Structure formats: structure tokens, C-alpha cells
Amino acid sequence: MIYLGSNRIVTQDYASHKYAEDYAGNHGSIIKMYGRGKVIKIVNKFKSHEHSINYNTFLNNQSKWKDGNIYHCTSITGTKVDMNYDELGGNQVYVETYGERGELLTFHFAHLDTVSVKVGDIVDSNTILGTQGNTGLVLSNKSTSDKTYGSHVHFEIRNKDGVAINPRNYANANIVTNYQTQTNQIDKDKKQFKVMVDSINIRNEPNTSSKILGAVYLNEVYTILEEVDSNEYTWYKILTGRNVSGFVASKKNANWVEIMNVNEDIKPDIEVPDEEIKEEEKENIVVKYKLLFTCKKSGMYYLNLNAGEELYIKEK
Ligand SMILES: [Zn+2]
Question: What predicted TM-score, i.e. pTM, was given to this entire model?
Fold first, then answer.
């Protein structure tokens, strides 16, 4: 029922956990998310069981263990382990994604056994983020000799202001019905662009000081609704599958995006570099075009050309 990759049950709900939910599943079972996002941070240095710290023991010794930002902990197996404050969740994956109304969210998965992604990866509901484990601060009724002691998934969601929201809807794909993701649909009749860099912000207005509404990511394709030119950037207005509408910048002479499906009719017939032609020669250039032959039958033709010769074909 609960998504996150396999059948799971809620072991600590949002009301009691306050800022997250914990889900039980099989130790080592795969963890997936619903939707699409980008991995922005990982912690991947701890071993399940060997680096499992009993949560209550930690709380009781927190003041003693605390040494600057490093906690010198003793695991349930007696292993000494140093953890920074943001490593208390053990092996972790943070994913930047979008909510049901296109709002920016950060998904946080903690206590993983293994981490299968790296920072910068674009992930979707087919991606295995990692496997369930018991690294970091965990609590369990099981014996500490049990390798699955405290194994669970801690799933936490924060908005752009860092405020925690109930993750239940995002843990259960059946509940979320209007969570849309970018479809990358190519429409040959429309002018579109493909994102060629890791990410570009979507902005409220076509200028770099306007509000950031989200981002577009590598290889995504969007239809261009409007183009706004400025000194440094060309701005493309888009509507995303996440229902976010705004402007995406492409720095001039940098390949942030690739323009696709440009109508052939608007391409110049013959490109003549203007600067190489003197004003007085411009009038004469038309007569220099030479009709080589009239094509009577469609097909492929071969021509022998000498070095330096230029070929002009008059189109019908
Ligand atoms: Zn938790």
C-alpha cells in the first residue's frame, strides 16, 4: 500500500513523530519515490547494524557525547562511531522535487542500508534510491544481536522555507492523483527546447531578480510559449507538466538549451556572410547564383566538385 518501493506499514505517524513518518518494510528492501526529482545531497558512509545507535541511549548521553558538532557515539555492537549532526540519520538521500501544486519540496530518506544514487542524479519512480537499513539513530524492541534491529525508512518532507509537511500522500502513490511530472513530449508542430545543462531556474518574470518558481532539468523538453530577448539572455516562457508557468533563461552563446522543431520555412535559403561582402557587391550577388540543373525526378545525385568550388542550387 505505501509506495516507497514495496509494501510498508506506518510505525510512527506524523502526529507523533512531529516532522516525519517512519515506515517498516523488509530490511534491505528497495526504496523508490513517487514522481521525479534531483538528488541534491547524500550521506553514504555507515554500515547497517555496525553503525546503529540506540535512540534512547543517544538521548540519555547527548550532552556527554556532544563535542562541537560531532557526536562520539557507541553503536549497539559496541563500535565507536563519530557522527556530525546531519549524519544522525545514518545513510541518507535528499531529493529536490515538486508537490501537487508545483511547489518546491525536499524529500529526505534516512537510515538506509545502501545508497544507489549520487548527487546530481535525476530520479523518478523507476529509480531505486537505496535499500532500507538501520544506520544512525534507530529504536527497536528487537535484540541488539538481530541484524534488522530498528530497520525502517524515515521519510521527511520540507518545503522551500524548511517547514516540515506530512509525507503520507507522497509515500502512498494511490492517494496522490494529481501529481504530474514532466512528460518530455516532442511536438513537431511547435517550437521547443531541450535542456542541455543540469538545471535552469524557472522565474516569475524574464529577469534574474524575479522569484524562482522551480527548475527545469537536463534532457527535459518544453514548448516555447513566448520569447523575450535581453542583453545577456534569451528568456523562454514555458508551462511545465507540474503546472508551473514561468520564464527559463538561456545565456547567449552558451548552450544551455537546444532549440528544436524550427519550421524549415523560416530558415534562410542561402546564408551569405554579410561582413565579407562590400556594399557595392551586394546588388550583384544574385546573378552569381548558378542554376546547375533542373531536377526531373526525385532521388539522390552525385556531383564531382573541385576544391574551392561553391555549389548553389535554386530551389523550386
Ligand atoms: Zn523517523
Answer: 0.60
